[in-house]
Amino acid sequence: MKIHQLSLFIENKPGQLMEPCRVLAEGGIDIRTLTLADTEKFGILRLIVSDWREGARVLQKAGYVVNVTEVVAVEVLDRAVAWWHCSGYSTTRIPTFSTCTRSPSAEEKRQF
Length: 112
Known about the structure:
This protein is of the alpha+beta class. It has helices at 18-26, 52-61, 82-87, 106-110, and strands at residues 2-11, 31-38, 42-49, 67-72, 91-94, 97-100. The strands form two sheets. It has a four-stranded antiparallel β-sheet with strand order 2-3-1-4, covered by helices on one side.
């Protein structure tokens, strides 16, 4: 399934992650997941939110430059071995998400 990811730059200083989270909360936007890649001076915050259009709008209104990217999301069974099982096949790494190119067979699913 394709979904939209919001990316924005934040300074690598204490407390900087709180502000975009506060802006989203005040806008009624739920954060589904986030990742942060950082360097010494700044970080790139990547977010999947409940309403990407409204999330981008409230963040931009708060002064953030927001990049919207379409990414592929895969639902993985909530089991310790689910990702290991998937990774035994051809996988493609996509920022913050990974996809399997082959679904487990009915027999393989029963093993979970």
